Amino acid sequence: MVDVEDELELVHLLRAVTVELDLLAAEFAGANDLHPTDLRALIALLDAHRAGETATPGKLGEQLGLNSAAVTALVDRLEQRGHVRREKDPADRRRVRLVVAEQAVKLGWSFFGPLIDRAVGRMRGYRASDRDAIRRFLRDMNGLVAEQRQAQRD
């Protein structure tokens, strides 16, 4: 028998975590003179770097749902603040890649690092099978949200 209340509680708990993370991100952005989109851009660029992917203005625009003019203004702001560099892509000199500056990484780590450290520590209290279930759940939820966003754009 399906316990709908139990399932709804999980959805509401996920939403509560999302709200808290959004509030924390807004505090960081405000304290560092960043627009929320600037912060999302930095996160997207750091994720690309961690995945070994080349970040370009076009890919960033796709991820954030921005047109090329908005991406140019966004990257200009981040570059002026020393958070991002535009570089020629060594694999294709016609293409520009975006690189997050070390000072931006340090700034982010100084704010979010303690939370990340605590989260990793908390995860160590779960069995590997529990972490696998959590990972599967979060990936599924992320996929569902991405599908919903795409459906609303279409």
From TrEMBL:
Q: Name one Pfam family in it.
A: MarR_2
Task: Show the InterPro entries listed in the entry.
Answer: HTH_MarR-typ, MarR/SlyA-like, WH-like_DNA-bd_sf, WH_DNA-bd_sf
Domain HTH marR-type: start-end pairs: 7-143
Q: Which SMART domains match?
A: HTH_MARR
Q: Which GO terms describe its molecular function?
A: DNA-binding transcription factor activity
Report the PROSITE patterns cross-referenced here: HTH_MARR_2 (PS50995)
Source organism superkingdom: Bacteria
GO BP of this protein: response to stress
In terms of PANTHER family, this protein maps to: TRANSCRIPTIONAL REGULATOR, MARR FAMILY, TRANSCRIPTIONAL REGULATORY PROTEIN
Q: What is the name of the protein in this document?
A: MarR family transcriptional regulator
Q: Which organism is it from?
A: Saccharopolyspora hirsuta
